[in-house]
Amino acid sequence: MTGLGTLASTAKRRIGWVVRDRFPFRPVVRQVQGVELVLPWSHRLPDYAVWQPTYGQNLVELGRLLAATGPLTVLDVGANVGDSAVQILNAADGKVLCIEADKAYLDFLHRNVDRDARVTVVEALLTVDGADSGTTAVRTGGTTRFVEGATGDAMPTVSPTSLRTDHPDFERLRLVKSDTDGYDVNLVPAIAEAWHDAQPVLFFEYDPYLTRLAGFDPDAVWTRLAELGYEHVAVWDNGGLVVGRTTTDRIAQQARVLDDVPGGRARSRIYWDVAVVHRDDADGLKAITDLVPDPLA
């Protein structure tokens, strides 16, 4: 596409977003990446799927490969409208435990997954210790970030340990997906510790900018996961394109490129999708090696 064509396309997209954002939670039915979903009109998923067909498909393919080696049980933290759960179960049989705390998206989540007996929904905010510090939801284009210390409009909280106790069908957890806009680095190790004997594959957004905004050190997650026995890491960019494979003892230094954004952070949202595998999980290692065969430069 020419430069003028690109500018025209970008302008058209932004005008469309402005219109859709005026009626953000108007329900619409969309065919997205092979599945039918009921979405808020403002949701960006259909746009992302058109611009980058690989968007989100790394998680779906990872679930499919893991299902080929044994029962697939998935914990979907920050389930949003249920798009990940629906797409995973469209690609492979299994069970998904969805946890979502934003009341605005829960209606859409239920519309999309309640017809599937393989999906369980927990209406709660997952926190490390289950404590309620008071949160408010900040929503942007189909995603939610919870800010602590403001007027609460989130659901009750639950800890990973309580979540495991309350849902014995997920005792042998195989895959964790976490998308909590900066809180992933704090939650994912807590989930891994709660299910330490199951050694699930951990898939989450690694976004140093939002992590610091949430008050956490983005590097600390790698030390914590290494201490829990996690060693192997597959990396994709935020559009689902392969970046490379590395280890928990090297990735913090390699991730410095995420802080080097030409034009400043406001230009775009730059982050990685990562899948982290325990050193004793041979099937998990094979799955991420099939998906991401080459080392991270």
UniProtKB/TrEMBL annotation:
What InterPro entries does the annotation carry? FkbM_mtfrase
Q: What is this protein called?
A: FkbM family methyltransferase
What organism does the UniProt record list as the source? Nocardioides daeguensis
